[in-house]
Amino acid sequence: TALIEAEITGRNRHEPVVSPVTWPPLQDRYDVMVVGAGFAGAVMAERLASDAGKRVLVVDRRSHIAGNAYDHYDAAGILVHRYGPHIFHTNSDDVFDYLSRFTDWRPYEHRVLADIDGTLVPMPINRTTLNTLYGLDLSSDAEVEAFLASRAEPIDPIRTSADVVISKVGRKLYETFFQGYTRKQWGMDPSELDKSVTARVPTRTCTDDRYFGDRHQAMPAQGFTRMFEAMLSHPNIDLLLGVDYADVRVAYPHDHLVFTGPIDEYFGYRYGRLPYRSLRFEHRTLNEERHQPVAVVNYPDEAVPYTRITEYKHLTGQIAPQTSVTYEYPSATGDPYYPIPRDENQALYKRYEALALAEPHVSFVGRLATYRYYNMDQVVGQALATYRRLKPMLRGAEIT
Ligand code: FAD
Ligand code: UDP
């Protein structure tokens, strides 16, 4: 019904929950201040408030909750993701069960096609991809394995994101599907990136064309922002949106801090800036019912300036006469979206981590604060584990 209401009113139901002009009155102290209302901050706040009975103040510099997972109804009444497509998937029963306390789910298995000179083929590379691209008739796993083995170049040791792919599928397929896309997405060649980046994408010998193989694959039935509202609407939690930590740090005293922003920012960039990759999102509403056959089409061609187009209706099952899509243009400047997995960056992060370990009254949690290329479920798992470690140290109203 939320979808239908929004279609009728065209209203954004998820604009600021609390604005700066309605700051809660100064308390003597909060037990915990949480910086960031994304997955890391929301899980920590929810656990501290409802499991440990702590009084928690959550602040976020953005005007909304849910961090990068924020979704809202656009002017056409379509539920869209402001910061690019977020698809939930996990192998962790714990993470799935925990989030299920705050949302129902819509089963959804993600499928992605890659545009290769105008032909749409499944990505990750699978049997269908090869048959379509090369006009082949490979009909068994063994045949596909033999085909790939004849192209693969042995590389030992496998260190970079180029090695991972070339050693599995050979140079031609690597260039077609990975090199251009990665150069655009990261602003550097796959040979300069840690192997973990392209290792996220498997190669399949079967015809399974799902992007993820996880046990749980689903979208929050009413969207991510609704799920976050359910997590954060607790009498022990106050929420301040549109304010920066630096502006409220002193005004709201607290015994413990949970910081989910960039770790280098917290320490005043003492050792220099950690590199993050950014994106510019171009959101468009089109006067057609459906734009593309699946939610995401990737454009690995380096000559195309964007990396992918997402059509949200596929994620939500929403029915409407128009459709909304997002183009992603990678960028060196802008909000920090992606930690860049490279040895030298990890070394710099380790120096900041050493500073963090010397701050017992601060928990650093999440993708930006631990400089890890984590999916949503990994951030939830990390936050739950951080809370479990913190809990024995919580005494009465004091956190020591
Ligand atoms: P964030 O969501 O970034 O939240 C941090 C919050 O802290 C932000 O809201 C920020 O405004 C706030 N903040 C930071 N510093 C301050 C400060 N000084 N004062 C006040 N507030 C501050 N994961 C998946 O599992 N599936 C996907 O399909 C998927 N797709 C993605 C697509 C894109 C384009 C991107 C960028 C990420 C994607 N992710 C996906 C990853 C997912 O977004 C993250 O794992 C998750 O959102 C991280 O949560 P977080 O709380 O660590 O960080
Ligand atoms: N990648 C690629 N071509 C594709 C899809 C992915 O080269 O069609 C590479 C690229 O470097 C990308 C990485 O694999 O950043 C991981 O892809 P994933 O879809 O997991 O990235 P995310 O959803 O986090 O942007």
UniProtKB/TrEMBL annotation:
Cofactor: FAD
Signal peptide: none
UDP-galactopyranose mutase C-terminal domain boundaries: 177-373
Source superkingdom: Bacteria
Cellular component terms per the entry's GO annotation: cytosol
EC code(s) of this entry: 5.4.99.9
Keywords carried by this UniProt record: FAD, Flavoprotein, Isomerase
Family recorded in the similarity comment: Belongs to the UDP-galactopyranose/dTDP-fucopyranose mutase family.
Name of this protein: UDP-galactopyranose mutase
Organism: Sphingomonas yabuuchiae
Name of encoding gene: glf
